[in-house]
């Protein structure tokens, strides 16, 4: 495959099963062949996307002292600001040249799971940016709805009941992440904004600006550019869904080059409920075959992956 396929997911909302199966088949081909696809027909308003990018620019323009007051190092739940050099997605490379801000499921302080101290069940950390909270939570909800719709397509493609994943995605570990990549120096050719990696959860829904940088590694090792397509999201399956499908769907390594100009993107890392058991789906396992992966909860798997990424989590593991 020489390019990343574009899938119009509007058919997933059709009353008839035929259009839904057509979209499901297109999603399945993309997940088997390249692991990435563009999504159109999603019904997330352009105005909401613009508001999120505007909020990201205002957030990252804050003085560093303000951003550090909501540092991810203050949260055991993967919430808050991630500074430059904090992450190293490719452990064999230098630290990533980016900064980020993470938001998770917004629960009330008296929620039973918050009171119980369950993982990924803490408060979000909000910097003093007017309108930021309302904008990000509205966008989070819209992406969660799109994730659920796409998973219904996955279920059809995999021979499962269409609502197989619906309950498993409720009150999920999903993270909304704002990202800012500064322009690279002319002498910094080959420097990476984000090192080569695969994503951790089930499905990534990425909104990009018009600045190039994202590259996807084809199955034969060739790197493909993932250019901006107006109004579309760049989506890819991640490692937790790969485990669920027993490698029927393969997650794909990707990276972000240091951009020629300042670059912003907004990623929704769609996951499952922390207690959801991730084990080989029966339709993805031949009779008598041994699964490629041992069962694990979605929260347990995400904790493993984050521990390998954040220095402060390594120190406290």
Description:
By secondary structure, the chain is of the alpha+beta class. It has a single domain (6-316), classed as Jelly Rolls (Sandwich), CATH 2.60.120. It is built from eight helices and 14 strands. The protein has helices at 17-33, 46-60, 64-68, 112-115, 132-157, 239-244, 298-307, 311-316; strands at 6-8, 36-40, 80-82, 99-103, 175-181, 192-197, 203-208, 214-217, 223-225, 233-237, 254-257, 263-270, 277-278, 296-297. The strands form three sheets. It has an eight-stranded mixed β-sheet with strand order 1-2-10-7-12-5-4-3. The protein has a four-stranded antiparallel β-sheet with strand order 6-11-8-9, with no helix packed on it. Strand 1 (6-8), helix 1 and strand 2 form a beta-alpha-beta unit. Helix 1 crosses helix 5 and helix 2 (46-60) crosses helix 5 (132-157). The chain is globular. The N and C termini lie far apart (41 Å). Mean pLDDT is 92; it is low at 311-317.
């Amino acid at each position: 495959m020489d390019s990343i396929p574009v899938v119009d997911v509007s058919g997933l909302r059709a009353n008839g099963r035929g259009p839904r199966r057509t979209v499901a088949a297109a999603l399945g081909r993309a997940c088997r062949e390249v692991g990435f696809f563009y999504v159109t027909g999603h019904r997330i308003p352009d105005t909401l996307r613009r508001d999120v990018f505007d909020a990201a620019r205002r957030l990252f323009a804050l003085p560093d002292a303000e951003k550090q007051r909501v540092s991810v190092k203050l949260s055991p739940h993967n919430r808050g600001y991630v500074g430059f050099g904090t992450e190293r997605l490719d452990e064999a490379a230098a630290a990533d040249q980016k900064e980020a801000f993470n938001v998770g499921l917004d629960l009330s302080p008296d929620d039973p799971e918050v009171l119980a101290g369950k993982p990924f069940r803490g408060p979000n950390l909000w910097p003093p940016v007017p309108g930021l909270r309302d904008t990000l939570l509205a966008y989070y909800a819209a992406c969660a709805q799109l994730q659920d719709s796409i998973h219904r397509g996955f279920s059809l493609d995999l021979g499962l009941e269409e609502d197989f994943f619906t309950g498993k995605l409720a009150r999920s570990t999903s993270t909304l992440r704002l990202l800012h990549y500064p322009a690279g120096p002319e002498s910094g050719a080959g420097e990476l904004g984000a090192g080569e990696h695969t994503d951790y959860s089930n499905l990534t829904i990425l909104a990009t600006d018009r600045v190039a940088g994202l590259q996807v590694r084809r199955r034969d090792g060739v790197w493909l550019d993932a250019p901006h397509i107006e109004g579309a999201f760049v989506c890819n399956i991640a490692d937790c869904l790969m485990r669920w499908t027993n490698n029927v769907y393969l997650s794909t390594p990707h990276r972000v080059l240091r951009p020629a100009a300042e670059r912003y993107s907004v990623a929704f890392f769609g996951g499952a409920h922390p207690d959801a058991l991730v084990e080989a789906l029966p339709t993805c396992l031949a009779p008598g075959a041994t699964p490629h992966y041992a069962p694990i909860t979605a929260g347990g798997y995400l904790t493993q992956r984050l521990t390998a990424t954040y220095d402060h989590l390594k120190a406290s593991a």
